[in-house]
Design a protein that fits this description.
Helices cover 61% and strands 8% of the residues. It is an alpha/beta fold. Pfam families: AhpC-TSA.
């Protein structure tokens, strides 16, 4: 069960102290902080100092020093230098982390579980974990891959055995949840329930007794998902009392309104004859813009049951939507900025050239994304709703800029994804230049995707929004609020 696209980053950052002695870890943290401050500095002398420090690191016989230099060269957009370090590291450290992390792809790419297990064992023999300190997350990812492959092949015993091999405490829940998810699809509810319970119990420990351990935040964040999965599992089996227990745990532990949790909660309540409670549950979701289409259909039925008639339902929905719009607009009004938008000229996936300059006089919504970015793609239904709202408007334009490509045929892949999913998006390609830099995304100083910008008619950035909001209505309303505020700004 993959929960977000920052998983690898969070884990590696969160568990770094487990890979080194405490003193060495503190020294490394101080060095990273020092280099990070030099990266942020606008003083050219600081940039020159940083480069000298990074070149000094490359004189070391430690691969870790080389990789630190590689990371910071990348951050200052010396991409070719960063790539050169990677190539050199493969030669200098043939049994090091760079080669290890590259060769594990053979495990991931293998589909047959028996062959995958064989490749995993060969890989782990070549790169024994003990050689790399106490950090095990790279190995745990590979074990999870083998586990999932066996789960898909209906080899329950092997799937669970590899899931149980996960060594990184905060990631154990993910290790158990992955095969559990497969078991549910295959109707193996008993084993799925056992694994989800282990995952939930592990998360609960990191919410309580282990809450100060490295990675505790990540582990604890899985509790809602695992409990909700258990609730849905029991709901499918019509075990409504058990489903109610776990969905209540998920709901009460969540810090925000979650559509997936609330829809299960409402369905369980309806099947237990608790229509008023079910209505209140969906009503809360609708008011936060978190209602799915299924929930809206349920709400119409529940409204008639609770109110005694469907009369007034349409007025109720109008009032709810109006309140959501006003709430969202008030929140974003406080976030308005005014900065000149960097200009760009790019080709779209059909070869048409588009420049920002040619769009002066229009509100332009720019969405930086990539085909490999899960959150980017999950935000697209909301973006489609927002676009549809302005489909008849001549002064609002949406541009979806594909960037940070990871494959040679990025343009074809981007076009295929948009076409296959029937998204009415104009996709521009911010491809790497000869220096290895994606120039447009760099000029906008984007550090993570998805990131959206709303540019006013005069060419000023009025809003910058990184990440995405769960709930199609909420996400679309946020974009709409930014557009309307940008219109009023001039």
């Amino acid at each position: 069960m993959k929960r977000n696209f920052y998983v690898s980053f969070l884990l590696m950052a969160g568990f770094c102290q487990q890979a080194m002695g405490q003193t060495a870890a503190n020294q490394r943290d101080s060095l990273n902080l020092y280099f990070g401050n030099l990266v942020k500095s606008e003083n050219p002398a600081d940039k020159a100092l940083l480069q000298n420090k990074l070149y000094d690191l490359l004189k070391s016989k430690s691969e870790e020093d080389w990789l630190t230099a590689r990371r910071f060269f990348y951050q200052i957009e010396r991409i070719n230098t960063s790539d050169s370090i990677t190539k050199a590291a493969k030669v200098a450290f043939p049994l090091g982390a760079v080669v290890r992390d590259e060769e594990v792809s053979a495990v991931y790419n293998e589909k047959d579980p028996v062959a995958k297990e064989k490749k995993f064992k060969a890989w782990i023999a070549k790169f024994p974990p003990a050689k790399f300190g106490s950090d095990r997350i790279v190995y745990d990812y590979a074990r999870n891959s083998v586990s999932s492959a066996y789960a898909n092949a209906d080899n329950v015993k092997k799937a669970i055995a590899y899931a149980d091999m996960i060594e990184t405490g905060p990631w154990k829940g993910e290790g158990w949840a992955s095969p559990a998810q497969v078991f549910v699809k295959k109707g193996n509810f008993a084993d799925a329930a056992r694994l989800y319970k282990k995952a939930a119990d592990n998360s609960y420990k990191y919410m309580t007794t282990l809450r100060n351990q490295p990675g505790a935040g990540f582990a604890a964040s899985g509790f809602v998902s695992y409990s909700a999965a258990l609730a849905d599992l029991y709901y499918q089996q019509k075990k409504y009392d058990q489903a109610l227990y776990y969905v209540r745990l998920a709901h009460d532990s969540s810090k925000t309104v979650r559509a997936g949790v609330n829809v299960t909660y409402a369905k369980v309540l309806m099947n237990l004859g608790k229509d008023k409670e079910a209505f209140d549950m969906i009503d809360a979701s609708v008011k936060e813009g978190q209602a799915t289409r299924e929930m809206k259909d349920m709400l119409r039925t529940l409204y008639a049951k609770v109110k005694g008639s469907s009369d007034g339902y349409d007025d109720y929905m109008v009032a709810v939507n109006k309140a959501l719009a006003e709430k969202t607009r008030a929140a974003f009004a406080k976030q308005m900025i005014k900065q000149p938008a960097p200009g760009f000229t790019l080709q779209d996936v059909n070869g048409q050239t588009v420049s920002l300059e040619s769009l002066k006089g229009k509100i332009v919504v720019v969405d930086f994304w990539a085909t490999w970015c899960g959150p980017c793609k999950r935000s697209f239904p909301s973006m489609k709703l927002a676009m549809n709202k302005y489909k008849d408007s001549s002064d609002v334009t949406f541009l979806f800029i594909h960037t940070w490509e990871k494959e040679e045929n990025a343009t074809e892949n981007a076009k295929k994804y948009i076409t296959d999913n029937n998204y009415p998006f104009q996709v521009l390609m911010d491809l790497k230049g000869a220096d290895g830099v994606n120039k447009v995304v760099s000029s906008y100083k984007v550090s993570g995707i998805p990131t959206k910008f709303v540019i006013d008619k005069a060419g000023n950035v009025r809003f910058k929004f990184t990440g995405f909001t769960e709930g199609e209505d909420a996400g679309a309303e946020e974009v709409s609020a930014m557009v309307e505020l940008a219109k009023k700004a001039g």
